[in-house]
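Hey, can you fold this one?
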Amino acid sequence: MADPGFRPVNVTATRAALWTCGVGEGIASSTDAQHWQVKHHVDSGGALLLGMGFTSDTFGYAYGTSGTVLTTTDGGSTWSPQKFGTDTILQASFADAGHGLIRTQAALSYLNGDGTLHAIHEPADVLQRFPYTASLVALAPEKMAILLSQGPGSEAGFLTTIDGGKTWSFHDPPNTGIASFVRADGSYWASGHEVVDKDKPGGGRGVALAMHSADGLQWQHTANDVHECQAQNCGACTASGCLASDSLIVNFYGATTRSITIPRGSLTSKWAAIDGHICTVGSALNCAATTEAKDTSTPGGPRPTEQVPKPLNAAPSAASVLNCILCGIDPIYVDEKLEGRIPVPVSFTVRADGTVEAVDVKDIASEGLKKKLASQIGQWLFEPPIQNGKPTQVSTNSTLTITVMRSQ
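Sure. Predicted structure:
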């Protein structure tokens, strides 16, 4: 377990360093996944940073609660704060300090260099049909795109601009299921699966998909080998590659495909890697050594489930001191003995910074499921609770109903 000096919430990487962000506007970096140097931190009253990224070796950004955005133009040595309203920024991607995409619970907006958020309203029917924002990517000041979907694991397409937000168009690639969408090596990259040979006797067949684009409109399939993505499709992608399982990274962005073995254990969908090291964030920051894969014939276990914010048209939460930002669980669990729809009582404490601790999963006759649920709940994030105008810690009890399939 790595200690960056604050509670980590997310992780990313540049070519030479790993970066993590989290509580108290904490930002730290490491070149060896062991020794971390804090680059920015606010001792009291700082925002909870939900994510961060780098567009180049010099420009990076981080975002989180209270409309907070931090940017760097010197490779992360110093960070400058900005405010875009007061709502929590759930997702963001910046091409530079003045151009980018921002998603709050109520709105999907872009920045065109004038310092003002401009809401994306058109095409309105698209946002109604595809209300989930799976991923935001600002490739350049004039080129930005959003992967929209009808729901987790559902039909998805790309809402794109090539003129800095003046006009937007939607492209739904036929016969595809897009699992992940990122910026890598100066291009848009998408992965998932597609159906081919639909016109042949017996119908079509599903194959792994990896494609790239310079503008989000015209897409080209990679010529690199992606057969390792075939078993369950590559997803949970970052600029470091994609997860083909819980023990294998496949990076097909370069001239050839690289396959990297990662240790099984505490992997989540929040991960980043540099040569020789991978770090992942759950309720803590865990890092491990990686190796070039020599044998990928044995399939690994399922990759971790990715969490996405509630849809744009979601009804507001009932009045409560607790307002969840990300509180997902797996749609289906697998167990050796249990099966069916199972109610599970849980209790946990939401700290004044919005993170979760003291998780207790009760009355479930499977230690494996109990451990997995506790781990996932420990990753939940809430708006920092406020009572009487002051930050507060809140303990709560709830009952989750999970779907369990018996393993073969």
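The helical segments are 124-129, 367-377. Let me know if you want another pass with a different chain boundary.
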